[in-house]
Known about the structure:
This protein is an alpha/beta fold and about 260 residues long. The protein has nine helices and eleven strands.
Amino acid sequence: MAAGAALAALTGIASTEAAECPRKDTLGTSRILSVDAKTTPRVGLKSFPHTLALVDHEVVLTFDDGPHPPTTSKVLAALAQECVRATFFLIGLHASEHPDMVKRIAREGHSIGHHTFSHPFMARIPFDKAKSEIDRGIAADEMALHGTSTTTPSTPFFRFPYFEATQAGLDLLQSRGIVVFGADLWASDWNEMTPEQELKLVTERLAAARKGIILFHDPKARTAAIMPAFLRYLRENGYRVVHVVPAGTSQKNADAH
Length: 257
């Protein structure tokens, strides 16, 4: 923790202890990182030069493209069983179709980021359409979560579909104080494979990287299937889960997030 706090201080990211888990012998959430767009506008080494200030064996779990109730519910159950908090980057269309699931994700303590309204290739459409995708996605997520349609996100985290960012899009998001998330490694769960193959792939990549922001997709049945085993792998191999929240989020608010 001391090393993590020191790293966080150097990069302008606040660090706090996570809430206690009521169940012992779980993986748990080791600490909370408060991420500020002013000092950390873009993170994830697959796309950008910098990433979050994680120490060896620390991971941030992220899930894209939900919510999809049949599989998202299984992912949430696995996370809850291990007292782990993650970040879900929601597609606005899906959020508008499943508002109860959006509320459940937030109620169970996870951060809700944004992933456009319909998941287009953002570099292949005009900027005004790309901007509309960002705004419509945020508005749909906020409506599902809070009952208010606003383009000002309560959690200013965004991830580009397919990691296909444009400079104009990056500049827009930075000007609005929204952190753009890439990833440091991923499970490649968009490819056809068995759950066993996915688990082997992502654990081997993590063993090589030793830390980082990990990308999964909660609508994928294979990902939902491996999540209990993946979290068990983290626990048995000394990994610690870090939960990211926006700058200015107090510990009390993070616990109730």
